[in-house]
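Tip: read the tokens left to right.
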């Protein structure tokens, strides 16, 4: 079975979306599993994360990893904004 998911996120600025893309790119290029494949695309202030996996377990694990990384980077944006 193939499982797919697409997440489209809007950031406050195009620069934040670009920073997010650059931060996540090494994870896409050096995936440690062959059970899923991830693609990133930036359009202005939007970042699209597309995940394709062999099964729903792999899809969930991959999505959880990317969402945690995105959340961590977003937290850094918030800290920098306050300074």
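Filled-in amino acids:
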């Amino acid at each position: 079975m193939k499982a797919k998911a697409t997440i489209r996120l809007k950031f406050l600025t195009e620069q934040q979306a670009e920073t997010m893309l650059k931060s996540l790119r090494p994870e896409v290029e050096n995936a440690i599993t062959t059970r899923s494949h991830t693609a990133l695309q930036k359009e202005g202030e939007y970042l699209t994360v597309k995940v394709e996996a062999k099964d729903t377990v792999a899809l969930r694990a991959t999505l959880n990893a990317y969402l945690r990384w995105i959340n961590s980077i977003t937290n850094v944006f918030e800290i920098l904004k306050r300074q």
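The beta strands are 3-10, 36-43, 46-53. The chain has two helices and three strands.
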